[in-house]
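<goal> How does this chain fold?
<sample>
Here is the protein in question

***
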Amino acid sequence: MRRLISSSINICWGFVAAIIIGGLVLSSICLGYSGGAGTAENPYRIATKADLLALAGTTADYNKCFIMTADINMEGQVFTTAIIAADTSSSSGFQGTAFTGAFDGNSHKITNFAINGGSGDFLGLFGLIDYGGSVENLGLEAFAVSGTYHVGGLVGLSYAGISNCYSTGTVSGTSGSYMVGGLVGLNSGSISNCYSTGTVSGSEEVGGLVGYNYLQGSISNCYSTGAVSGTSNSYMVGGLVGLNYVTISQCYSTGTVSGSEEVGGLVGENDSGSISNCYSTGNIISFEYVGGLVGLNYASVSNCYSTGAVSGTYHVGGLVGYKVMGSIGGCYFLIASGPNNGYGTPLTDAQMKQRSSFVGWDFTNETANGTNNYWRMCVDGLYYPHFRWEYSSHGDFVCPDGVDFYDFAVFANQWLLKEIPADVWPEGGDGIVDFHDWAVFANQWQITVDIENLADFAEQWLKTGNNYCIADIAPALGGDGVVDMLDLEIFAHNWLEGL
C-alpha cells in the first residue's frame, strides 16, 4: 500500500500502523516521516536518516512543510545526484521535480554525506529550490560535494529564501566547472544570516558562499572563512561570491583566494551588481584583475574595506584590481596590502583603527551618517571596523566591548519582546508602529486588510519590536522574533568573556 487516505489519520507516505477498535482509529504512525501533516501549522517531522531519504524519494511532497527534530547523521552515505530535488537526466537544463516547500532545520544539522556528481548538474543537499521554497535554521557538517555545474553544499540552484544556514564541508568543481559555492552554486533568491567555512574549488564563478549571484539574488549579513581556489585557467573567483550581478551587503570573507583572472577577496567580478558595507581580510593570489575586495568591477562598490595581501601581475589593486565602469565610494584598503591604483583610499594600519578615517560610515553611537548602525568601533586604536551584528550574535550588544552588565541591562529590557508585523515603514520597518505605518496601512484598506487586521494593528500601536530587539540572537545570526531562554543561553555562555 503506497498511500492511505482517511479522515481519521494524517496523509503519509509509507505504511501506516493503526490501532482500530470498533472501526475507530485511535492512533497512527506514519513510517515515512516521524509525524506531522505537511502543513505550516503541523509540518512533517524529519528526525532520522530514513525520514530524510523518504523525503528525497517522495517528489509529491516537495511542496509541503518540513521541520527537523533531531540532528541527522548520514553515516558516510554516498550519492551521485542531489539528495532532494535531484536532476534526473543528463540532458541540458533541470530535469526533475524542484522543491517548493518549506524546510526548517530547527537549529539541527545534517552530517557525514558525500555527493560525487562527476559531470553532473544541480548538486547539493537540494538540487533546485524554486520560487516559493525556503530553507532556514539548518547546518551541514562533515560532507563533500563535487560536480560540474550548479554545485553547492546546500543548494545547486536556488530561487528561494535561505536564512540562518551554514556549511562547513568541502565543495569542489570538476574540470570545466562553473557556478560552484560553499553554500549555493547559483543564487537567484535571498540569502541572509548564513555562513560557510569549508574549502571551495572550481573553474569559473567560484565563491566561498555563492558561486554566482544572479537575477533577483540578494546576500546580506553573511560570511565565509574557507580557502577558495580556482583550477588552472580559472575566472571569477571570490572569497564570498565568484560573480555578482545583484546585491551584497553587510558581508565579509577572511579566507585565502587564488585563481587565474578576476580574483577578489570578496568578489571575483562585480558585474552590474552593488556591494555595500562589506570587508575582506584574506590574502589574494592571481595573474590578472586581482583586488583585495574585488578583482574586476563594472558597477557600484561603497563603504567597504580590505586588508589582505594582494599579489598578481597585471591590473592589481589593494582594493579593486580594475574598474571598467561604475563607482567606488567611501572605500579603503590597508596600504601595505597591495598597490594603490586609484581605486579606494589607502590607509596605514593605525589609520584603519581610527573611526574618523571612515568618512560617512554609519557607526553605532552616532546619527550623523544614519541610524542603521552597520559598523562598530568602540575604542580607537585597537581593531579594524566590524559589523554590529558580529558582536550582537555573541551577546555583546553595546559598547564597551565585552559581554558584561551593560549588555545584560539591554537583554533584561528586551525580555520577551516580540516581533511586530505592523511595523511596515520604511521597508523592513523602523522599530516602532506609528503614523508612518498607519499611512501604509490606510492606503491598503479593504484591498489587502480588513477589520481583523485593524484590530491587530491597534494592538501593536506605539510598540517597539525586534528591529530594535538586538537581544534576539537565537537561533544563531537571525533570531526567531522573540527574546527568550534560547537567547539567554547564548548570552550566558559568553558572559564576561571580554573581546
In short: Helices lie at 49-57, 349-352, 388-392, 405-413, 435-443, 451-459, 485-493. Residues 309 and 337 are 4 Å apart (CA to CA).
